[in-house]
Amino acid sequence: MSIKPQRGFTLIELLIVIAIISILVGFTVVVAGGMMARAKSTKDMANHRIIGQANWNFSTNNNGMLFSPRVRETDFDPQVVGDAVVDSINSRLWVHSFDEGIDGSGAEVSEALESGVAFEYIGNISPYKSPLDPNNERVRSYSLNAYVGVERSIDDYSGFDNSVWRKHFAQTASISQITHPSSTMCTITEDEVRNGGVNINGFMVHPRYEVVDAFPLWWYDFPALWSPEGVGISNVDGSTETIPLSTEALREGWAYIRNNADGAEPEKWIDSEHLSQHDYDLLRKKLLPGHIGSILDF
How much is the pLDDT for 207? Predict the structure, then answer.
């Protein structure tokens, strides 16, 4: 009985098999990458929900008072504003980014989170850091709205306690003073390279009432541009959403801040040409709807 010799693969057949395997591997990598990105975005939104719920629970246990958006003690003079105001602000700091809360370079350490009033209601440091944050050194990626939880001025900062800024201010230390909690920002994912990478106090953009072409757009802080879908936020009522940021100008503005962080450390990015108008409007209307802008904006 004769035995037929076994035929091996030809070179062309091997190349076809290799090509198919390469396509499958590439497809798997793309799918896995997409799943990982979605998982990170889901965790990011979960963190917003945790911090927002912590703020709500804190208010329930403290006669309606909310976290202060500040992470450092207010610079108000007690002899000017009164001891009660200063004590109220400093006793509600959600994070303590001073003294033992920062290291020698000024960067936050875990003690900053554990010493703030939010920690009792959050329970661990994990929800303070977004999984989307590319900076492995930072311990916190989120900021509170600078217009919410305040006693005397925006961010309870003395520099905003004057006639120019006061028309934009409304007292919101208590949750009962938030007229539209379901559409008022509580938390936002914020990027930062200034100040040792610490998000100093609350998140803010200039709150101008009127849209005046001659008036530039002032970005004091920047939403994190880590996700193509936009930036995550929570609202005062505990709901969460994604703000779909889209203008390339905002990325250019952030690049300006990042590239100058080690030099003059610019206080803000001024968009004189209104190139970031779309993103500016989306965030501005979440600051304090009904007071800054119109609730009809929604």
Answer: 83
